[in-house]
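Exercise 7.
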Amino acid sequence: MNNENQKHHLKWKGFHAAAAAGLLACGMHASASVTSPAIGQLLWSEEFNGPSLDTSRWTATDGNGCQINLCGYGNAELEYYSPNNVSIADVPFEPGTRALAIRAQHQTVGSNVFTSGKIDSHGKVQVQYGMIEIRMSTPNVATGLWPAGWMLGTSPQTWPRNGEIDIMEMGHKASARAAAGSPSANNFVGSNVITWQQAACVPGNESCAASTAWQTKNWYVPATSLANRFVTYRLYWTESGMRFTTIDNGVEHDMYDAPLPVNSTALQAPFYLLLNLAVGGNFTDAATPGQVTAPLPGTMYVDYVRVYQLDGKGAVKLGNQTVPEVAGKFGVFTDTTAVNNKLVAGTSSDIFLWNSASSGAGNTPPYEGANVIAWNYTAPGQWFGGGVQARQAHDLTNYRNGTMKFRIKIPANVSFNIGVGDTYTNQNWVNFPANTTQYGLVRNGDWAQVSIPVSTLIGPKVALQSLLDVFMISSDANNLPASAFQFAIDDIVWDSGTTSTPPPSGPTSATQTSATTLQFTTTTGSWADVHYTVNDGTQQNVRMRLDGTTNTYSAGGLKIGDVVRYSFTYWDTARNYAVDTALQTYTMQ
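Solution. The predicted structure, written as tokens, is:
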């Protein structure tokens, strides 16, 4: 994964309207399953025993946030994250143990005087429910180090709508530790859950982030410093409740006084994992490099991360769950244009008008079909804008060398911008000055077509593989309209400029047909074999049953959480030779 494609967020640590949002844990009842958990089979684990970081599971961050227009990652952090600060190493204080080692040190990179490490499993490993367990040690955090083991939702919505689950974090401000009796930073570890809540939308908290760590116990205070010794952190997670604990010397301690109710659909979706050691930032008392007192270098070790079934629930999904749109034509808003796939307003997309004080519904007839985006601008001197947002992220990497085309009817004297945005908060805009011809736009009072190269449209940062705002229009802030007007948009289509060559007839799917059965299917018209393993066990090689042109084979005796890896060998009748397919993975649900 490229750095520009990593998901980052503003981890807002100021005012939180948690009480108004109904997020306080105290006195609330949650499902008994998290308080009397039945821990089932191991679904997935990362033992960090190999020679180096497994890049099929993890991506190491390279940057200080500025590369995604979020310097300091929204938290005013002081470090530069370098893959060189991430390794698999022997643990010096526990002979025989190898672990992930994340090292923070004095090292100047550009404007940063500290480097450290951060890894995430975004697009590679996603977890939904179960018991997540992290065995971790932290360095002497003193003032300025901020180790964390946490999770972010894979939802295409931006933070905090995607949800954040902090399984553990240390290095809190002294003011945050005061409610616990002001223990040292090395004798205090906390957990947290952050979601979007309407009641948290107050001045000063424009992100509407609501935190469960606001005015409630969410910590563990050990008698012995946590520095340079292993403890185990657990999250028990179901669709209705969450419970955070710390296991220290064999004794399990609850972080919160009571389990948290799951009060947001964001917490019922898959999440990916993050492990990092930040230096400074607004979570700590080190706003400047000179305020960092933690001895450096300092190393955080993670012995393992494990995911278990909890009361029969829990799933781990491997790989990127977003399938690229095939090359050809992808319709954003169109009725009659022939496309490979398209969004449908109200079903798979939403149309937003951002400033109802300046604009409302217009009456311009459609360019094609029966639908049109027609608006009436009525407030000279005010801004306008709106767009089409997909309800799920779309991977449009096959369109990188193509164009986005759309029809627009707008007066010649109006300057405007066209833009797109990804799920990582990156946006890019293309300006259309008044009274000019740009990207094919000829304004003569009638409908005109615009064709913008995708490379220009996305700019240097927008991630095509995770596109959410697939079309946006806004006024030009430097040239706001001086008079009222109507404008309309229609027939918005992404065009790759090429059509994809369909793959040879062959494997098409692995479909779960019951809680215990996975059916393999090909459409070869001739013989086909399936090769598969369950949880990396002995490989099974089976000749599939051919009925007409379709081969099928059902693997039974499976259970939730089983990881099935499979490939096919089939006879390609068109080319007259046998084909071996790539290995794929399916996790039983």
